[in-house]
Amino acid sequence: MQRLTTSKWLRTLFYIILIVVLVFQTYPMFWVLMSSFKTKQDMAYIAPYAFPSSFYLGNYVTALFESDLIRYFLNSVVVAVGTLVGIVILSAPAAYAISKIRFKQSEKLLSFFLLGMMIPIFACLVPMFQIYNAVGLRNTYLSLILPQIGFSLPMAIYLYTGFMKFVPNSLLEAATIDGANSFQMFSKIMFPMAKNSTITIIIYNFVNIWNEFTYANTFMTKGIMKTLPVGLNDFVGEMGRRDWGGTFAAIVLAILPTLIIYFFLNKNVMEGMAAGAVKD
Amino acid sequence: MRPRNKWEPWLFSAPALIVYVCIVLVPVVWSIVYSVFDWNGISAMKFVGLQNYSRMFGDEVFVTSFFNNLFFMAVGTIYQVFTGLIMAIILTNITKGNNILRVIYFIPCIISSMAICKIFEKLLSVEPQGVLAAIMEGMGMEPIALLSEPKWALLVVTLVDGYKFCGLYMVIFYSAFMAISNDVVEAAYIDGCTWGQQYRYIKLPMIKNIFFVVLVIVINGTLKSFDVSYILTNGGPGSASELVATYTYKTAFSSTQFGYGSALSVFLLVESLVAVGIIRIFQQRAAKRD
In chain B, which residues have their Cβ closer than 8 Å to the Cβ of A43? Predict the structure, then answer.
């Protein structure tokens, strides 16, 4: 391949910028990790940007066993799994109907779903709070799972229809001749074929659900029902003043699961999040 | 495919449709209804017509939060789009290490705003001393608590939000550049096009549509932005870093003015629809000119 090459000084400039940005993007994370190994003496006597004097794990013990961090983590897992399952089992069949079954209102139905992408969650929060309060959903997992399913459906349906409409009809017609009913056609042919869309949808939504703050802060007021982001806030608020070491360890533990997943799936995560954002 | 019977498409789409209508649309309509009432959640609802809307214009905190939000949108958009674009251009021009750098630059995007805010809160803290304060002291300056300084709070909130999201635009621009066919670049090379001209006349115009997509995402996102301002400064000090969404939230849930809070949330809805509409008009004009 022929490419327009850059001059030597431009290339040097590029690498300088890249390194500056690299430091900028990673330093906060690196600093927290480093500080999480500092003992109380380190905290008090050595400069905040200096390295810890030893590889001290006491802060992690504090963060794990003197708080509800593990419970918050489990809450986050339950909410994430529940929401993701809900999104996929609701959006995939709807997209199948819109893209593959011929009926008069299919285009209108898609536009109707897409309308939801324009609605800010704040426009729904007050009535949601009233409704969930009245039916006793507050402080249950459902109060986080339901709204996140609802607001993720438009994007998921959009991504699924984008894929499904290009699946050739002849494939489905062949299945009809073999005697498949429409439910089998969806579950045995269409859904497995849309595997990549499913992965994109799951990854994009997982990152958002895992980091979600507003609903969790509004609907989960009981301590043990909190998810990781809100729980972290409580933890830092409570420990932040007297125990910075524990706070840093808690922050590291809170971001570790996403980082581990990202370590293995970074390409999928980047593409999934970009695809989720660029939905037009 | 032809449906077996007229119920078939609805059998597949009804579950999603019901959930979507009940969870998203019913509350929106409900909000609009609330917005013409005066109601604190306990006493009887009192119909006040459009008073909640006219009240906004006299509400100093709301006006402040609106202008803060414009600043947040403008600076945030420039910062995020500019950084994302520059990084994408540089990364498409280097051969060594471009994958690993892209993966690392993207990390802040996948971390919760809660964790990011807590980290910056500690980095910028003065008592106990964070890194910034230590550096300032080392340079013989008086450490400034940026987050409790009305002059700085909004800018810091804007930059932290931009810090979290700029990686996303880098990835979007990067894939747009990679999608440009090599033939085009080769043809330009043969015609003696320089490196700068290649971007000025070929690559940037070719990804014009992506620009509009990115603008929609950034502007839509910054107008509704909530997390960073709410967590990092709680809108403060005073209302120095208050945004429309944080003020709406506090009005509804901290001062339990559900009627007025709903009116503010309807404003937020209309505001983002108008903003996206304006960008779309520009996009159509740009498309016509070609």
Answer: 128
